[in-house]
Amino acid sequence: MFMRFFQLEIKPEFVNEFKKFYEYIVFPKLQKTLGCLFAGLIKSGPKGNKFVSITFWETKIYAENYETKGIFQELLKQTKPYLTDSAEWKIHLFNNSDYEYAPVSEEPVIKKYSVQARKNEEEKFDISNSNMYLRIVSAKIQDGEIDEFKKLYSEIIIPQLKSVKGCEYVYLIESTSEDDEFISLTIWDNKENADLYEASGKFNLLVKKISHTFSHFYLWKMALEKEYNPQKLPSENMKIEHYDLVTGKSFV
Prior knowledge:
Structural class: alpha+beta
Radius of gyration: 20 Å
Oligomer: single chain
Number of strands: 11
Distance between the termini: 13 Å
């Protein structure tokens, strides 16, 4: 399985309209695109205008075909009117020591990941319940420890998470652009069971079993839910973010 994270910032006055665009334009296109399993739109907080479009694909080839066959470019072109103008300004220096400030167009950011291990290789992928909750732990792995990390995750982490109430899916995902960057993605039936898992101390116990392979560690949570509920950061080395589910649809 392959995942694409497409980050974009929408003009505040177009937030509600963009949801309709995603449902009536993006969903039908992706549903007809070979290999696309799921598409979802999430945003940071109930009043935010920063969104992430998440798509899951059967294989990397299907995802690449989506980009190279023109479908993605077509949708991106239709998305442009909703995007904010860049707030970033750059300084341009000249040989005569003069300078000027000029705005830089900020393009949406795309992140891509491949799945290295999963809870059940034969399971049917479906995220259709709007209460489902995505919990993402991102780790930088030391040089020479990647094989060890993958082995421990497959032999220890996945079997342990199989027995945790509410944990529906478990994936170990590797960045396609950063060799040492991995994501542990767990998908829960609701936020309450994910919170219970963390509060029980089992998460910390599992982290200790693999933390010797980490070079950098932080936590990123994406809450696919209607209610936005910030939580206290558990430590200086961990980052928590929440996202509301705006809309989502499975194609399998």
